[in-house]
Design goal:
Elements: H1 15-37, H2 40-64, H3 69-74, H4 77-80, E1 85-92, E2 96-104, H5 105-112, H6 116-124, H7 126-134, E3 139-141, E4 153-158
Antiparallel strand pairs: 1-2, 2-4, 3-4
Length: 168
């Protein structure tokens, strides 16, 4: 007898609140584990978080039923809920989804908790893997983050065009 996995209701909590809950548990856990096993536990945590984000991206594509950039854009509301992100749209088409984050309450929250270093691992590092799971053909570029000290984050997602072969 196989049972269905439980319904994912994590977004009901809100991603910003969820990240704070995670950080308050993960930070002391990682600190204690690194004291016992060495600093490489942070690398393992980063790998796990990236893998989870990739799986979440694939699940998001299934939920949306569409792995296009407009489909991806339509599914990102949970990350901005409760004023977590203030963004400025640059472009949205079938080939490009580009926006800037001009305020990031995730970065503010990690700094307020004294966990700025962990913030990049627990939040920023997920972004590329999320889109990779959502659609592995999309190229993700970001040159700066608020978490890293910049005044904005520049998110750029591009779907490379497929050259058309013309036969004569």
């Amino acid at each position: 007898m196989t049972s269905e996995p439980p319904i994912d209701r994590l977004n009901e909590v809100g991603v910003l609140n969820r990240r704070e809950i995670e950080a308050r548990i993960v930070a002391p856990l990682l600190e204690r584990l690194s004291e016992r096993f060495g600093p490489e536990v942070y690398d393992t945590a980063r790998d796990v978080i990236v893998d989870v984000a990739r799986e979440q991206g694939a699940a998001l594509a299934d939920l949306v039923g569409d792995d296009s950039l407009p489909g991806f854009a339509s599914a990102l509301g949970a990350w901005s809920a409760d004023g977590a992100l203030e963004t400025e749209m640059r472009e949205l088409s079938d080939e490009v989804f580009a926006f800037d984050v001009v305020r990031c309450r995730y970065a503010e929250m990690y700094r307020a908790l004294g966990l700025a270093d962990l913030g990049a691992t627990m939040s920023c590092n997920r972004d590329g893997s999320l889109i990779e799971g959502f659609n592995p053909d999309v190229v993700f570029t970001r040159t700066q983050t608020i978490m890293g000290g910049a005044d904005h984050c520049d998110f750029r997602f591009e779907l490379p065009s497929t050259p058309v072969e013309i036969r004569s």
